[in-house]
Amino acid sequence: MNRAGLGPFQWRLLAICGLTWAADAMEVLLMGFALPGISAAFGLERGSADATLLLTATFAGMLVGAWFWGALADRIGRRRVFLTTVSLGVVFGLLGAFAPNLGVLVVARVLTGFAIGGTLPVDYAMMAEFVPTARRGRFLVYLESFWAVGTVAVAALAWGLSAALPPEEGWHWLLGLAAVPGLVGLLARLGLPDSPRSLLLRGDAGQARAALDQVARANGRELPDWPLAVPEAAARTRPADLLRGALGRRTALLAVTWFGLSLGYYGIFTWLPSYLRAQGLDLGATYRTTLLLALAQLPGYALSAYLVERAGRRVTLAGFLLLSAAGVALFLLASGATGVLGTSALLSFALLGAWGALYAYTPELFPTAVRTTGVGFVSGVARLASVLSPSVGALLLTGQLGVALAVFAACFLVAAACAWAIGVETRGQALPDELPGTLADRVGA
């Protein structure tokens, strides 16, 4: 893959995966923007159990989907899951737009979450396995930065619809239009090959070679006529290895890091539109403020993309998590609209920088045979945190701001400690095909 070079193929892959990643961001954040209109349509009270259930539904589906699709992609290949999850996400997203009652809407959001939960492990494994070593971390952060694009898109869409339609009607259009980017992304994905690494480990050396040749041709390169060899130890790697030995320790620390960052991030930003409304902002002003906070994510990603290749993955991730904890403290101390907006922007900048570094780091820590299973497992743990986060975030609306923010700050501090304790720097290293602790792994490190 290093000889196939970096060129048009990787940039096209980034655009395609980025489009569906932006679409997933829209779906994940959608309920926070749609909740005022849905509440008006179905008579939900602010902070009620039904409102919390609705915010939780997508994350509950993602929890199951991340584990299911991640393991399946290691067994049947990245590309099949790559296409299936996006297709189902579009179908179930549209189903929610036409939901006649709250029960149907909750089911539709669970199914949508189940579908898009598989996008994360597959997209990041694909990107990691198609990009040469020297630029891999930066491209993985670039892919994560499309989350900000989706956030800006859904905020702008919600803002525009709030001005054009009453809330109890606008939410239908918001859910329907949010499903369109996924459809475009699905059509764009059809010409992409499966991952050569995954094909090789599943015994299809011919297709692996054809995929490599496709990359090289797209980049104007020609590969030498070398045979492709499967490392013997890699072929014996099994999902159960994720919980054993050195890889088990790595998986556990990563899982806590994902859990802490996810609980804090979604606990704050899922409820932020409703929190701003509770502070007296009208619906249009709330969406405009959220749009500004989404724009603050972009410099966070840019700095993260730079630092993961200059300073390394570990220090970048831990540093952004510590900055996030500091941002929570400043948010608690802030007074006035300017102070709240400024500290919210700092949080947005720091948290998305942390997400960028974590998404770059995670797929590089798992061997190829269990890469999507591993990424799916830790992201599933994050979805468990996402299921809990609306309940914790609801404290923001019930006057217990200090308690909620103390929990979030503690999450970021624990996540930073666990990220640092992993003790492995993957910058400039080839993707692992064997378990940590093997001779090949030690030599590669």
Short description:
With 445 residues, the protein is mainly α. Helices cover 77% and strands 0% of the residues.
Task: Tell me about this structure.
- 77% of the residues lie in helices and 0% in strands.
- The protein is globular and about 65 Å long.
- The chain contains 20 helices and no strands.
- The protein has helices at residues 8-42, 49-76, 78-97, 102-116, 119-130, 136-164, 167-178, 180-189, 196-201, 205-218, 232-235, 245-269, 272-278, 283-295, 297-310, 313-333, 336-361, 371-393, 401-421, 439-444.
- It is mainly α and 445 residues long.
- The protein has one domain: MFS general substrate transporter like domains (Growth Hormone, Chain: A), CATH 1.20.1250.20.
- Helix 1 (8-42) runs antiparallel to helix 7 (167-178).
- The model is unreliable at 439-445 (pLDDT under 50).
- 58% of the residues are buried.
- Keywords: Membrane, Sugar transport, Transmembrane, Transmembrane helix, Transport.
- Its main location: membrane.
- The chain crosses the membrane at residues 51-69, 81-100, 106-127, 139-159, 171-192, 252-273, 285-308, 315-334, 340-362, 374-397, 403-422.
- This is Sugar transporter, putative.
- Pfam families: Sugar_tr (PF00083).
Could you state the CATH homologous superfamily? MFS general substrate transporter like domains
Main sheet characteristics: none
User: Residue-averaged pLDDT, rounded?
Assistant: 86
**Secondary-structure element sequence?**
HHHHHHHHHHHHHHHHHHHH
Distance between the termini: 19 Å
Q: What is the tally of helical segments?
A: 20
Strand content: under 5%
CA gyration radius, whole angstroms = 21 Å
Query: Structural class of the secondary elements?
Result: mainly alpha
The top-level CATH class is Mainly Alpha
Poorly predicted regions: 439-445
The CATH topology is: Growth Hormone, Chain: A
Overall strand count: 0
Q: Can you give the helix content as a percent range?
A: over 70%
The CATH architecture is Up-down Bundle
What number of domains?
A: 1
Shape: globular
